[in-house]
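Form 7-S
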Amino acid sequence: MSVSNSSAALPHNALYKLAAAGALLLGVLLILGAYGHFVAVWSAITGEETGFLRRVLLMLPGAMLASTAALNILFTKPLWQARGYALTITLAGNLLTMLYLIYLMIQGVPDHPIGVFLALEMSQVILLVAIRAGLVWPAAADMPAATNTK
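Output:
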C-alpha cells in the first residue's frame, strides 16, 4: 500500500533564474548599444537644420534600447524570485523592442548592428515565452512510491 504525500512541494523552476541572469546581461548590453547609438547620431540630433520629427526618429532606437535595458535591470530581482508580474512585464517590454528591431531590419538601416540586438532580444523573448507556456527546468521526474517492506 502506497501513501502519497499531498503536501509535496511544487518543483522549483530554475528557468526564472536563467531569465533573470539573461535580463541583467541583456540590460547591460542594451545600455551599451543605446550609448553607441546616441554617440553616432548626436551631431545630427543637435544640428540646427534637423527638424523636430527627424530628431525624434533619430533618438527612437536608442530610447527603445535604453528603456528596455532599464526594464530588464529593474525586474531582475523579481524574476529571480519567480514573480509572475515580472515575467509578464519583461516579456511585454522585450517583445515590443524585438518587434521594433524587426521593423528596422525590414527597413534596411545601413551600417547598423540591428541583427546582433535582435538576436539577443529574440533569445530572451523565447525564454520568457517558454516560462509563460509552463516549461519547467529541471523537469520533475515521477518517482516511484516507496513501499514499506516491514
